[in-house]
Amino acid sequence: MFRRREPVPFAFLAEADRFRSNVAPPPRRRASAGQIAGRWLLGLTIVAGLVGSLVLGMPALSTPPSTPVQQSQASDGH
Question: What is the pTM of this model?
Fold first, then answer.
C-alpha cells in the first residue's frame, strides 16, 4: 500500500559549498579623466555645502552675550 521512497543523495549540495570557479572576472575599466573630474567636483560640492551650512548656521545658534536677564514680577513676591 505505502511504498518507501528512496533516499535522495544530497551530497551535491555539500560539494557546491566547496566549489571554486576557475574563471577570473574581467579587469575593471579605468575611469576616464572626465569621470575623475566629475567625482572630484561632486565631492567638493558636498564639502562646500556642509561648510556653508556651518558658516550660516553658527550665528543662528549662538546667543549674544549682552542679553539682559528678565525676571517677572511674580518672582519678586509682588
Answer: 0.47
